[in-house]
Design a protein that fits this description.
Blueprint: H1 2-15, H2 17-22, E1 28-31, H3 38-46, H4 52-58, E2 73-76, E3 81-83, H5 92-105, E4 111-114, E5 120-122, E6 130-135, E7 147-150, E8 163-174, E9 181-197, E10 202-209, E11 218-221, E12 228-231, E13 240-246, E14 258-261, E15 274-279, E16 298-308, E17 313-320, E18 329-331
Antiparallel strand pairs: 1-2, 2-3, 4-12, 5-9, 6-7, 6-11, 7-10, 8-9, 8-11, 9-10, 13-14, 13-18, 14-17, 15-16, 15-18, 16-17
Helix pairs in contact: 3-4
Length: 335
């Protein structure tokens, strides 16, 4: 019997070569470089960027699924990735030398672009500086180099040549959970420059447009719309909040979309903070008999804050592994 079993195993090994080697597979060791992500590693080695949530859940030492740290070692197998346990701290001199050597090899830190056209929530205590009240020759819309008229004049302290940013009011935004009014969604349309001033009115020229400008458009103090970069920054405190609205207003939110959230500078949020989008999993209590209070949250994706107000912020969804909706929860992980 033993002989027949041995022959059977030998035969299987001949026809399935990988079977005999699988248990003894030697992993390749990869050292994390600055800017590496779990999504990137999963796509590079496993050929599936969707593997990263599973990898994250199996490696408790990884606290940030987007930004992992230089010097961490990964065992690369044919079907999985495993992080090696962190080694005990080396003496200060050795540690400094190792960090210097690692940093000399790393790529540039991951950044995200702010284009200036993302829009924001104008919070309830903020007011526009004025309005576009009319168009030259009674036009309905205006574009670059067109003449418009505003209700901003000398009485408000305005001066000739002063610039203002132009916005379209999209409507009042209420919190999807508490129903609290968060503010008014405003979308950038362009910029204008005052040319001739009366006491309570002025003529202006449109200097730049993203979209057509019409009477009733909001005027706000000029905001430089030059493209700039936002670098990732670890939150200094725990952040928890919600997605309250999206730029597009569509029901389903995905990677690349701009969203507005209920976290601002008053809560400690900063540009560059990464937050993870999660959803509670409904627990059917008739099957658990009181043994479980709640289930692990479902991970939906991640976003990066681009700009903060006092109680709200504008953010970019950088990853989505499932459909995201207004009202989905946000959590952060700190050092």
């Amino acid at each position: 019997m033993r002989i027949r079993l041995a022959m059977l195993l030998f035969t299987v090994a001949l026809f399935v070569p990988g079977l005999a080697l699988a248990a003894d597979e030697e992993p390749t060791i990869y050292v994390i470089k600055q800017g590496d992500t779990l999504w990137g590693l999963s796509d590079r080695f496993i050929k599936s960027p969707r593997y990263w949530p599973n990898m994250w859940s199996r490696n408790s030492q990884i606290t940030n699924p987007h930004l992992i740290y230089p010097g961490q070692k990964v065992r690369v197998f044919s079907d999985r990735l495993e992080f090696e346990p962190r080694e005990q701290a080396a003496p200060a001199a050795q540690k400094a030398a190792a960090q210097a050597e690692t940093m000399a090899e790393v790529v540039a830190e991951r950044t995200y672009s702010v284009r200036g056209s993302e829009g924001f929530l104008m919070e309830t205590d903020a007011k526009p500086a004025g309005f576009v009240v009319a168009m030259h020759h009674d036009r309905i819309v205006a574009g670059d180099d067109d003449i418009v008229y505003t209700d901003i004049g000398k009485a408000q302290g305005a001066k000739g040549g002063e610039k203002f940013s132009v916005y379209r009011k999209e409507g009042t935004v209420s919190h999807p959970v508490t129903s609290e009014i968060m503010g008014t969604k405003v979308i950038p349309l362009g910029t204008l420059q005052l040319t001739d001033l009366e006491q309570k009115a002025s003529r202006a020229i449109i200097t730049k447009t993203y979209q057509e400008i019409s009477p009733g458009s909001y005027l706000m103090p000029y905001r430089d719309d030059k493209r700039r970069e936002v670098s990732l920054k670890m939150p200094t405190r725990e952040l928890k909040g919600y997605i309250v609205e999206s730029y597009s207003g569509t029901e389903i939110i995905a990677a690349g979309d701009i969203v507005y959230i209920d976290l601002g500078s008053a809560q400690g949020a900063e540009a560059g903070n990464m937050l993870y989008i999660v959803r509670d999993v409904t627990l059917d209590r008739k099957y658990v008999e009181g043994r479980i209070e709640r289930l692990p949250q479902e991970l939906l994706g991640a976003l990066v804050i681009l700009e903060t107000g006092r109680r709200t912020a504008t953010a970019l969804v950088v990853k989505s592994i499932d459909a995201i909706y207004k009202g989905d929860k946000l959590v952060s992980l700190t050092k």
